[in-house]
Design a protein that fits this description.
This protein is α+β, with helices and mostly antiparallel strands and 259 residues long. Helix content is 24%, strand content 31%. It has helices spanning 2-16, 32-46, 59-65, 115-120, 144-149, 197-210; strands at 49-55, 71-76, 80-82, 86-88, 96-105, 122-131, 156-163, 175-180, 183-189, 220-225, 230-231, 237-241, 247-253. The strands form two sheets. Strands 1, 2, 3, 5, 6, 7, 10 and 11 form an eight-stranded mixed beta sheet that branches. Helix 1 crosses helix 2. It is globular, with a radius of gyration of 17 Å.
């Protein structure tokens, strides 16, 4: 089947570090449905999924990738990290880090849920840093179906601390500063994420139902970058500063050096 072959090619590129000049024409997904079918096959190869990411939640990212809206992608347990882990920078070709608001679920909000139903299904909000990546040489022009097949630019993810009282916070106005190598790189806010990270979570819960998926208890959803992504390098460090809510610090190593 074409979706199975597409997933095999993507997973092979993920494992080897080789990049694809797009999927071959005979297995390239032509639309959203085919892209999600390949994504589901990819999840069967990559191993357990601990949650979902949302790609292109900012207007900048949608314009950069030529997309009309966000994309959902699975997050794989093997690429999940705790704060303090040294992340192998040389395994990622996009080479960027993003500060994100993420939510851990305690229940399935159900099909076509209301915003309140989705928020009631949340256990807690956590601060995070995502390192998105792509298996394509030119992910910018890959198009939505191919990006869906590639786990919506899935990469590595670092979980920071939980945030008590998150539901009462004005996340849209909450400032976020991203530091790279000790220097301020970018400023933003939760409003960059589809207007509010909670709205992005609601979008995902609704979108997954369209594709035969649902949020499960324990799932984590990372909602998209609140600032312009910062470049990373082996030996470097980024800090996602969420002000009064806390921060997430991530260091990077060169895996080829055995660190």
């Amino acid at each position: 089947m074409k979706d199975e072959r597409a997933a095999e090619l993507i997973w092979d590129a993920w494992r080897t570090g080789e990049r694809l000049d797009g999927l071959p024409a005979d297995v390239r997904p032509r639309d959203e449905r085919e892209g999600m079918a390949a994504q589901d096959r990819l999840a069967g190869l990559a191993g357990p999924v601990f949650g979902w990411k949302i790609a292109a939640t900012t207007a900048y990212a949608q314009q950069y990738l030529g997309l009309p809206g966000p994309l959902p992608g699975p997050m794989f347990e093997r690429f999940r990290h705790a704060e303090g882990d040294a992340i192998p920078a040389d395994t990622m070709t996009m080479g960027v880090a993003e500060p994100e608001f993420a939510f851990r679920m305690k229940a399935d909000p159900g099909p076509a849920p209301t915003l309140d139903a989705v928020l009631d299904a949340v256990d807690t909000m956590v601060l995070a840093v995502e390192m998105p990546d792509s298996r394509y040489t030119d992910h910018r022009n890959a198009g939505g179906p191919q990006l869906l097949a590639d786990a919506a630019c899935g990469g590595r993810w670092v979980e920071g601390s939980a945030v008590p009282g998150w539901r009462e916070l004005d996340l849209a106005e909450h400032p976020v500063i991203l530091y790279a190598e000790g220097t301020e790189f970018a400023r933003g806010s939760g409003g960059a994420v589809l207007g509010d990270p909670r709205l992005a979570l609601h979008w995902l819960a609704s979108e997954l139902g369209r594709h035969g998926h649902a949020l499960r208890p324990g799932d984590v959803v990372t909602t998209g970058t609140a600032t312009t992504p910062a470049p990373i390098r082996a030996g470097g460090r980024v800090v996602a500063d969420f002000g009064s809510l806390g921060s997430v610090e991530v260091g990077f190593r060169d895996e080829s050096g055995g660190g």
